[in-house]
Amino acid sequence: MPSNGINISASMMQLMNSLNTMLIVAMALVVAIVLAVVAILALRYTVLAAIETDLAQIAVLKAIGAPHSRIRSLYVIKYLTLTAVGATVGYAAGQPLAAQLEAPTTLYLGTPPRTIWSVGIPILAVLVLAAIIVGFTWLSLRRIGRISTIEALHSGTSASLRPRRQRWRLSSVRRLPVQVWLGAREALRPSNALLLGVLALCTFTMVLPTNVSTTLSNPQIATYLGVGQADLRIDVRTGVQDLATVEKGVDSDPRITRHTTVLRRSYKMSTATGGWETALIDIGDHEAFPMEYLSGRAPTTNDEIALSYSQAQDTGAKEGATVTVRTADGDKDLTVTGVYQDITNNGHTAKATFDDGAPALWQIVYADAGSTQQASALAKQLSGEYPGIQAISMNQYAAQFFGATGSQVRVVTTLACAIALGLSFLITMLFTVLIVSRERPQIGVLMALGCTRRAVAGQYLIRFGLLALVGTALGLLGASALGSPAIGAVMASRGAPDLQLLPNWWLVGLVLPGALLATVIGAVALALRRLRTMSLSTALTTGE
Predict the structure, then answer these.
(1) For residue 92, which of 57, 104, 223, 539 sits 20 to 30 Å off, Cα-Cα?
(2) What is the CA radius of gyration of the chain?
C-alpha cells in the first residue's frame, strides 16, 4: 500500500510486464523491416534473371511486332500470381508462429480483444507489401523496352542491360594472378552495389538480435537495473532475519572479496510541478560497486543524491540542481550529483548516503566472490544458513527480472539468422545466374584463350567472396552504430535511454560472418554448375 511503499495497481503491473514485450517488439520490427527491404531487392534480381533467361523469346516477340505493354503484362501477371500465393502462404504460416511468440505476453497482460483493427492491420500490412512488390516488378520490367532486338537475336544478350566497363589494365598490377585481378576488378563495379547492400542488410539482420540476446545474458546487464556490477545479491527481509547477523556471516566468509549494504527506503520527493511523489531511495555506500552514469557521479556526502533517468525527468532536475526530499528529520535539500539508468520499479529510484533511521522496505547486501561458481555456491549456502533471506547471483537475478524475454529473443534471433542466411543464398545465386548469363561471351573468350572452367569459376568465387567480406563489414558497422540507438530509443520510456548492447565478439565477429561467407560461396558454387555444360562454340556464337 502507499503508506508502506509504492502504490501497486493493475495498470502498473501491466506497465512493468510490457517492458519485456517492448524490447521484443522493437527488435522484431527492425528485423521485419530489414527483411522486407531485402526481399524487395531480391525481386529485382529475380526479374532481371528471368528477362535474361527468356531473352530469346522476348526478342522473337518484339521482332514479330508484339507491343512492349503486352510483353510486360505477361511478366506482371506471372509475378502478381506468385506474390498473391506467397503473401497468402506467408500470412497463414505466420499465424501459429505469432501465437507462440505472443503466449508469454498474453500470460501476463491478458488476451487482447479481437477488433477490426487487430485483424485488419496485419492483412493491410500484407496487402501493402504485396502492392510494393508488384510495383517494383512493374518498374523493373521497363527494361524490356530498352532491349535491342537485333543484339538479343544475334548474341543472346541484352546490350542495354550490360554494365559499363572501365579500362583497368592488368599491366598496372603485375604481381596479382590474372584470375584474382579479374575477380577483384569485377567486384568493384558499381553494378554490384545492390548485392553489396543486400549482404550488408542480411548481416545487420543477424547481428542486431544476436547482440540483444547476448546482452540479456551478460552480467553487465545489471548496470541497467539500477545497481553496480556485483556477483551476489542478498535480500534480507525486515522482521524475518537479522541484518547484522547476515552481514557478519558474509564478512567472515573468505570467498567474499568485498560487500556493502544498501537500505531501500520510501520518501516523498518534490516534482517539477511543485507537488510531491513517492520515490525509492537507496541509502548506502554507492562507490563500493560503482555504476555507469549518464552524467555525473555517485553521491559521497549526506547532502548529495543521484537520480534515475525517469526520476530526473519527473523532477526536472539535472546534474548540479537541487531537489527536496521529505525525511524523518524534515525536508532536506539535496544536490543532484549524477543521473543513471534504471528500468526497475518503473524507473523511479534514487541513491543517497544520508541516514535518518526511517524503516527500510528492502535490505540488500551486494557482494563479490572469487568466481561465478563460488557466487552460485555461496547463494545456495547462505539461503540454507539464514532462513528468510533470498540470496541469488546477479546473473540469475537479471534472468528472472527479464523472465521469458531471453527465450523469446533467442527464438527471434534463430529465425532472423536462418531467414537472413536463406535470403543471402537465394539472392546470391540469382545474381550469379544473372551475371553468368550476361557474361557468356566474355567467358567464351577466356576459354578460347586457354582458361579452364575451374579458373573461370575461381574468378567468380573471388569476385563474390570479396563482395561478401565488404558487405559483412558494412553490416557489422551498421549494427554497431545503429543497433544501440534503435533499442535505446524504445527503452528511453522505461528509464534506459542509453542502453548499450553487449555483443559476444567471437560470435558476431567470427561465427556469423563465417556463416554468411560460407553461404555466399555455396550459392556461387551451385550457380556456377552451368559452366560444366557451357561449350566454347555456343558461348562465342549464340551465347547459349
Answers:
(1) 104
(2) 31
